[in-house]
């Protein structure tokens, strides 16, 4: 009996012990780095189970685990750690140290990701923190100064202004020069569909609150996997997604005011009367000159007393205004072991700094993924946006508000009855503002459905289907009281819908053999089909200006409609190999076929190879405590440029009307050999890290040779065609890039880091058609041995101090001078593209206070003021003049660059280097100052995080450029590097709040 009792007791003891070890309980903890800073996003996994979580913003986690189970903590860039759960263990405090053997980044490349440490390509990575809280509706503008060799320029200060991004210089003459944008694996439509003569930015439809990272593929080794579309670089945009953690809800709201970053000094009434009276007398003599000047003043003053300066209009006050921008966005994210989700919405409302120019946008996104089994997962990303823009005329239109600076200060802006004055020197843009409108609405839907199946732990298959719909409508109405309106009103309406779908299917094999051979191979195919439909109609003769849509027009005066499209069929493969973690190799190939090219050249092959050597892993350097990381890499590859018309290679016919009879005419000659431009690029670089990566960076040299450039080659008139598009010409971009990152201070409550980059690019035209003959267009020239679109101008030599005549050099500086402009020869006088670009970003955190700023600089570009012949013309005509024209020559012996004022005499107002300036500048692009309230205060408000902040955009510009803005360019096609009454950038001051629940 006693023995049986002992057996029973032992059984229950064993059962209780097993139950105690098997019983799960919540384990809480905090994870920090070796400086005490919390680490969000650390993976916490119970080994040999599918249970896992991630740490929150403050490094906290909570996970169910049993005594005896093992928790594994892993985070990119840090050494992994494991902890066995003891019977009394409840709260953990984990410190993860940095892994000096790797750089703490994972970059997104075509059809996959790679660790920055083993990357043999040149890829610049920006995170959501780099682009957050910059008060601008344009996502691209927030990239300025952040990546070496990447130049971001907004055309001008209009809210919808086009954006130019140049990655390592401009690589094309006749084809597009913008990079390929890829959003979550979907190539984005990026066509300018504006019909008012000024470009819009198609990517205005993206909101920065949904962006997780932006990876910029700069060299051919990285971009070659995109084949015929990677010549200008590739920008891969990855949106946010949920994780295996408790759901969070975040809200951000900011409101800011905007003003012009710069204003110019123009003549006031006193100066205007003085200068033009003098100019008239110099041209016509005392009596006739006074009569000419005063007669014009009487007209301009419109019955007001100009002699007593009754009116002194500052037209800039009518043109520019204090605008505002407000942003509101929210996001919800989270998930569990199987399902993750991210939902977001955003609203932007921007009133521009130019009268009549406004924008509002709404965006929404849903990203969901689900792990159906250990082998299969799938998901979907969907987004929608609607952007509504109130637009103004292009820079070359008289009703463009900025052209209002040409009006005389003697002219009142409004009549006594409050109506805009219709009798100004030029058309009064205020009439256009009141009696006309131009509205553009862009609706965009992007989506991607994806699935992944793992056949083996080392082999998986991905299938993706992406969709991008870009739909734009434009409506305008010009009433009978608007300038230049000879009919009873005119209305215009257009719509364009472009949809693109892409199907990608590829296998990925990844395996490590014998712990030293790391192999990954990606191979697959892709099909991309794009279709576009455009239609427009114009109507005139409206019964009243109150009726403003086409259906009220008495006469349909014009109409247009067209459909077009293109297709790409591609096969690609990429292989990477790492030996012993320090010898790195990569090769890729893509076979592209495009409907855009000639039937004999529709398919092309684009390949790339690269290699790297991590020297810091070698025995002869592994003992160097001061050296954290050192890698040499080199690459070569070929990419293409397919940004030409959809049917550029085909012989086209069009319909026409002759004597009201239909007919067909040849519209375009065929070129069955027309193919893509190709770019061969070589890159040699070194990546370094010192003192436990407290100092790190990159140095690169590259050479990009663009071959088979697309040109419109003139044809004899007897052919029936003016030109044919052919692959002729060669150009090279070469340069160096330098990146220096520092972690100056890394303590629990005090961090200071900087990131500096600078790049030099030299552009040279190597070969031109027609045996290298110069190609001259306006003020620009294509010449072998010179930079693309170099300025080709007569050299201005100043003023003859004896008589005030303008002088010109006969053959450039140092040669003889002449007063006859037509005797002088044009010379290459500068280039429109910067030779040096750079940026400096700094981030500081101190006891809840965060402070960051970015400076951006450009040097070596020239900017031609196309409006200078009117606005800085020493009183040649009655346009108001820049204030520096008061420094004109007046008497023998005067030393000045401003010739004598002579009305209608053309003294020094020819197109010359007088109106060409250096456009060097350094700009404080953005600045943010924030404060995060202590956790105790946030808890009382039932929040996880509470932060308030101030941010600024374009707060300071240091430049010798005398115009409105060294970055602004004409949006009306006056030629590369030309400004023409182009609006300056906006300076914006914003206050905001971040809430997280």
From TrEMBL:
Query: Its topology with respect to the membrane?
Result: Multi-pass membrane protein
Q: Which Pfam families match?
A: CarbopepD_reg_2, Plug
Predominant location category: membrane
UniProt cross-references to InterPro entries, sorted A to Z: Beta-barrel_TonB_sf (IPR036942), CarboxyPept-like_regulatory (IPR008969), Plug_dom (IPR012910), Plug_dom_sf (IPR037066), TonB-dep_OMP_SusC/RagA (IPR023996), TonB-dep_OMP_SusC/RagA_CS (IPR023997), TonB-dep_rcpt-like (IPR039426)
Q: Name one GO cellular component term.
A: cell outer membrane
> Where does it reside?
Cell outer membrane
Family (UniProt): Belongs to the TonB-dependent receptor family.
Q: What is this protein called?
A: TonB-dependent receptor
């Amino acid at each position: 009996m006693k023995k049986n009792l002992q057996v029973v007791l032992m059984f229950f003891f064993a059962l209780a012990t097993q139950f105690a070890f098997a019983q799960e309980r919540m384990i809480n903890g905090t994870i920090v780095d070796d400086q005490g800073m919390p680490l969000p996003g650390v993976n916490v996994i119970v080994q040999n189970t599918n249970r896992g979580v991630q740490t929150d913003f403050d490094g906290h986690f909570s996970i169910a685990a049993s005594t005896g189970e093992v928790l594994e903590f892993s985070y990119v860039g840090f050494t992994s750690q494991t902890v066995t759960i003891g019977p009394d263990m409840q709260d953990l405090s984990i410190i993860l140290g940095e892994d000096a053997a790797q750089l703490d980044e994972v970059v997104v490349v075509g059809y996959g990701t790679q660790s920055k440490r083993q990357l043999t390509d040149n890829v610049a990575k920006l995170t959501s923190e780099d682009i957050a809280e910059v008060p601008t509706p344009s996502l691209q503008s927030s990239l300025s100064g952040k990546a070496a060799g990447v130049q971001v320029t907004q055309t001008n200060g209009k809210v919808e202004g086009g954006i130019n991004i140049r990655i390592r210089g401009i690589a094309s003459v006749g084809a597009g020069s913008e990079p390929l944008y890829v959003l979550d694996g979907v190539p984005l439509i990026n066509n300018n569909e504006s019909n008012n003569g000024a470009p819009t930015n198609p990517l205005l439809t993206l909101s920065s609150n949904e962006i997780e990272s932006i990876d910029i593929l700069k060299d051919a080794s990285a971009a070659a996997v995109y084949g015929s579309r990677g010549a200008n670089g590739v920008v891969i945009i990855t949106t946010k997604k949920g994780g295996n953690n408790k759901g969070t809800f975040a809200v951000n709201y900011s409101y800011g005011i905007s003003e012009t970053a710069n204003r110019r000094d123009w003549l006031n009434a006193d100066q205007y009367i003085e200068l033009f009276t003098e100019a008239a007398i110099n041209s016509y003599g005392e009596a006739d000159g006074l009569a000419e000047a005063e007669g014009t003043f009487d007209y301009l003053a419109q019955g007001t007393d100009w002699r007593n300066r009754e009116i002194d209009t500052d037209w800039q006050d009518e043109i520019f205004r204090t605008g505002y921008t407000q942003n509101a966005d929210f996001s919800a994210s989270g998930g569990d072991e199987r399902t993750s989700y991210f939902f977001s919405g955003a609203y932007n409302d921007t009133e521009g700094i130019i009268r009549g120019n406004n924008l509002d946008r709404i965006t929404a996104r849903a990203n969901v993924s689900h792990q159906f089994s250990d082998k299969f997962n799938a998901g979907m990303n969907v987004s929608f946006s609607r952007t509504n823009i109130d637009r103004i005329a292009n820079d070359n239109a008289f009703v463009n508000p900025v052209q209002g600076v040409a009006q005389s200060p003697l002219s009142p802006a409004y009549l006594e009855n409050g109506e805009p004055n219709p009798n100004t020197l030029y058309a009064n843009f205020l009439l256009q503002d009141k009696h006309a409108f131009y509205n553009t609405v862009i609706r965009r839907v992007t989506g991607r459905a994806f699935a992944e199946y793992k056949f083996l732990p080392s082999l998986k298959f991905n299938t993706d289907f992406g969709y991008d719909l870009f739909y734009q409508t434009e409506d305008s109405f010009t009433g009978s009281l608007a300038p230049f309106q000879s009919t009873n009103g005119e209305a215009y309406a257009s719509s364009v819908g472009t949809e693109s779908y892409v199907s990608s299917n590829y296998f990925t094999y990844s395996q490590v053999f014998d712990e030293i051979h790391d192999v990954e191979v990606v191979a697959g195919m892709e099909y991309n089909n794009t279709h576009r439909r455009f239609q427009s109609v114009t109507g005139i003769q409206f019964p009243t200006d109150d009726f403003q849509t086409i259906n009220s027009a008495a006469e349909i005066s014009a109409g247009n409609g067209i459909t077009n499209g293109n297709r790409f069929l591609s096969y690609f493969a990429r292989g990477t190999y790492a030996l012993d973690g320090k010898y790195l190799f990569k090769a890729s190939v893509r076979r592209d076929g495009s409907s855009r090219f000639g039937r004999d050249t529709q398919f092309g092959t684009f390949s790339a190879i690269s290699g790297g050597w991590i020297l810091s892993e070698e025995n002869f350097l592994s003992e160097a405590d001061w050296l954290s990381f050192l890698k040499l890499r080199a690459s070569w590859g070929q990419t293409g440029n397919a940004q030409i018309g959809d049917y550029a290679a085909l012989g086209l016919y069009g319909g026409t009307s002759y004597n009201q009879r239909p007919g067909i005419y040849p519209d375009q000659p065929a070129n069955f050999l027309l193919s893509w431009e190709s770019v061969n690029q070589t890159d040699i670089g070194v990546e370094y890290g010192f003192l436990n990566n407290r100092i790190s960076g990159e140095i690169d040299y590259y050479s990009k040779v663009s071959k088979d450039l697309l040109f419109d080659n003139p044809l004899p008139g007897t052919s029936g065609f003016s030109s044919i598009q052919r692959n002729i010409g060669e150009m090279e971009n070469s340069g160096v890039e330098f990146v220096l990152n520092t972690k100056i201070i890394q303590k629990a409550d005090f961090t200071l880091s900087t990131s500096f980059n600078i790049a030099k690019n030299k552009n040279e035209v190597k070969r031109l058609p027609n045996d290298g003959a110069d190609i001259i267009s306006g003020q620009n020239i294509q010449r072998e041995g010179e930079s693309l679109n170099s300025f080709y101008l007569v050299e201005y030599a100043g003023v003859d101090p004896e008589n005030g005549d303008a002088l010109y050099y006969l053959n450039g500086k140092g040669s003889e001078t002449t007063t006859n402009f037509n005797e002088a020869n044009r010379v290459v006088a500068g280039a429109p593209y910067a030779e040096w670009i750079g940026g400096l970003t700094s981030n500081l955190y101190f006891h809840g206070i965060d402070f960051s700023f970015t400076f951006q600089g450009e040097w070596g570009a020239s900017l031609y003021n196309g409006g200078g012949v009117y606005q800085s013309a020493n009183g040649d005509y009655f346009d108001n003049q820049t204030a520096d024209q008061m420094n004109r020559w007046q008497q023998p012996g005067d030393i000045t660059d401003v010739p004598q004022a002579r009305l209608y005499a053309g003294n020094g107002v020819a197109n010359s280097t007088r109106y060409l300036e250096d456009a060097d500048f350094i700009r404080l692009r953005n600045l943010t100052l924030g404060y995060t309230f202590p956790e105790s205060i946030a808890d009382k408000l039932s929040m996880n995080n509470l932060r308030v902040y101030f941010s600024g955009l374009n707060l300071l510009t240091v430049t010798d450029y005398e115009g409105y803005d060294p970055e602004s360019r004409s949006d009306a096609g006056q030629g590369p590097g030309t400004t023409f009454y182009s609006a300056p950038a906006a300076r914006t001051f914003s206050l905001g709040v971040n809430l997280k629940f």
